[in-house]
Amino acid sequence: MEKFKKGAVLITGTTSGVGLNTLKPLIEFGWDIIAVNRSSKRAIDEANKIFKNNEIESINFIEIDLSDLNSVRDGAKEIATRFGNVLKVLICNAAVYKPRLKRPERSSQGFENSMAVNHFGHFLLINLLLESILNSDEKIILNGEISKFIPRITILGTVTANYLELGGKIPIPAPANLGDLSGFEHGFLSPISMANGKKFKPGKAYKDSKLCNMITAQELSKRFTPDKLISNSLYPGCVAKTKLFRNTPWIFRVLFPLFQKFITGGYVSERLAGRRVALVATNEEYARTGVHWSWGNRQKLGKKVFSQKLSQRIIDPYTSSRVWKLTKKLVGLI
Ligand SMILES: NC(=O)c1ccc[n+]([C@@H]2O[C@H](COP(=O)([O-])OP(=O)(O)OC[C@H]3O[C@@H](n4cnc5c(N)ncnc54)[C@H](OP(=O)(O)O)[C@@H]3O)[C@@H](O)[C@H]2O)c1
Asked: Cα–Cα distance between 14 and 42 in angstroms, integer?
């Protein structure tokens, strides 16, 4: 029994919202956690507010700023060294959404920042930690039981990145669409700010970055057989009160949760969303590679999870392998 160790889940962005609310269920399921944030101090302060006793001791805080690829490299090195043998799950959760920007913000390497944080940072982190999770101990301990656990990567997707769903067709400012990928082809540096190389639209930049997240989950499922790696994504529901919407107009922040609660019925609490993420990332029921899990946009009590059909923009093999190769080049992996 001694030679087995507790399994560990890495999750990005735990200072608020969905990420913060994923911590408790993960600990309840028996996991150690590697919480990756750009400020460990703020992450610890927030975690201390929700954990009363010594549960927080199951969380290791590592500082990575996903908008800086050098920070991702340093953090990944530390994680691989300290936790390589027990790291079984990566949850890519952190994100920025700044729909009111007039001009693009730039990451440390000069990329448009929402693509840099949401896609490039996570893509590099995944690739740098892939070897660790694939070679981690086959069996781990969860709540005192020895478990055989196939490594898993879970990525937060969204309805607005899936053109097959109503939310994915919203024309304001435009649906997610990577176009001819000329922004990727030409290096994504100023003056380029969009995947398709066209004019900067901040809301679309977010949707495009989430589309890339969902493509990454699909591409991983093609590259690894399900006995080696399970790669999935999810739409946790409309978690309309998280800080993700902090950069929207105040009137939107007031009306959006009410609209989702009483008109569409799509509203989900941060707590429920966090539980959904923890389940999709670690539960046997969700161990199907290439699946995008959803509970739909009408939340009813006891509503069952299902495998959401995805648009060609996400599953097209030619596009996804090009996005993979071009991203590898942009983040310096080739
Ligand atoms: N809310 C929704 O309705 C909804 C719906 C579908 C999908 N999602 C997805 O759910 C995920 C979580 O969103 P949320 O609603 O919980 O948003 P949130 O409360 O704003 O949380 C975002 C997290 O990302 C972190 N982050 C931002 N920039 C970072 C950087 N450069 N480096 C490291 N971490 C960074 C934030 O940390 P700081 O405190 O340092 O900024 C925070 O911890 C996102 O992937 C989002 O796309 C959300």
From this structure: 9
pLDDT over 80 at 54, yes or no:
yes
What's the 207 CA to ligand 1 centre distance in angstroms?
13
Q: Show the ligand 1 pocket: residues with CB < 6 angstroms.
A: 12-19, 37-39, 42, 65-67, 93-96, 117, 156, 158, 210, 235-236, 238-240, 242-244
Mean pLDDT of the chain: 95
- Strand, coil or helix: 149: coil
CB proximity list for 284: less than 8 A, separation 6 or greater? none
* Amino acid letter for position 295: W
Whose CA is closest to atom 42 on ligand 1? 13
**Among 245, 239, 160, 240, which Cα is nearest to 205's?**
160
Please tell me the distance from the alpha carbon of residue 211 to that of residue 214, in angstroms, as a whole number.
5
Atom 5, ligand 1: residue with shortest CA distance: 238
241 C-alpha to ligand 1 centroid (Å): 12
Check: pTM over 0.90? Answer yes or no: yes
pLDDT-wise least confident of 37-46, 126-135, 243-252: 243-252
| pLDDT tens figures, 152-195 | 999 999 999 999 999 999 999 999 999 999 999 999 999 999 99
Q: 256 CB contacts (<8 Å, ≥6 apart)?
A: 240, 245, 248
| Euclidean distance between CA atoms 92 and 156, whole angstroms | 6
Q: Is it the case that residue 280 has pLDDT exceeding 70?
A: yes
* Superfamily of domain 8-330, CATH level 4: NAD(P)-binding Rossmann-like Domain (3.40.50.720)
The residue whose CA has the least distance to atom 9 of ligand 1 is 156
* Residue-range domain boundaries for the chain: 8-330
Taking CA atoms only, the protein residue closest to ligand 1 atom 43 is 13
Structure confidence at residue 262 (pLDDT): 87
Given pLDDT bands bounded at 50, 70 and 90, which one contains residue 146? very high
Q: How far is the CA of 157 from the centre of ligand 1 (A)?
A: 11
